[in-house]
Amino acid sequence: MGAKKIVVISAGLGTPSSSRLLADQLADASVRRAAELGIETQVAVYELRDLAVDIANNFVTGYAAPRLAEAIEATEKADALVAVSPVFSASYSGLFKSFIDLLDHTALEGKPVLLGVTGGSERHSMVIDFAMRPLFSYLRAKIVPTAVFAAPMDWGQGPEGDSTLGGSLTSRIERAAAELVAELAEGTPAKAPRVATRPEDKSFEELLSDLTGRN
Predict the structure, then answer these.
(1) Is pLDDT larger for residue 96 or for residue 210?
(2) Residue 117 three-state SS
(3) Where does 22-132 show beta strands of DSSP type E?
(4) What's the average model confidence in pLDDT over 171-200?
(5) CA–CA dist 93, 197 (Å, integer)
(6) What is the pTM of this model?
(7) d(Cα 119, Cα 180) in Å, to the nearest integer?
(8) What domains, with CATH codes, occur in the chain?
């Protein structure tokens, strides 16, 4: 059995970035948990900040530059995904959503996904349930139960942490990583055959073919 591929997507804009810091800790914990179970892993990290111009150009031209094409292909073929975004206007960032929009709409079906969010205060933690989960649920990803929100005060917490957010940041990271690795240990489920019985399930080309009678 080959190594399990974990792709990490960070949509932070700063340098250094709290989103990248959280993404790295989630990835490190996942690799460590996998090793404990004898699972070999390969991790690829993509900072969307570095791909922002290529992402914008792709929407205009329909062409993905080599670096962006690599990130898209790696994400679509990954065995698991760690996705981290900062909070922008009570939701994920536009850069984060733009990258997700470039993926094939079936690419994340059944794929284990660990969600992470960073924000200025714990009040922003609702972004996980009101924005991040609905997005990945729509894409039929297999979202692990524990998502990790990190506010500035979380980075300096002790081992007990804030009970309102489910314990310390470290404990939440470890729990989320364990859940992701548990999904990896079960193997990637096979996708069900895609049957486009509803108009909303069909691509533009399929709808056009239905109207014109051309294959």
Answers:
(1) 96
(2) strand
(3) 41-47, 80-88, 91-92, 112-118
(4) 73
(5) 33
(6) 0.82
(7) 23
(8) 4-190 (3.40.50.360)
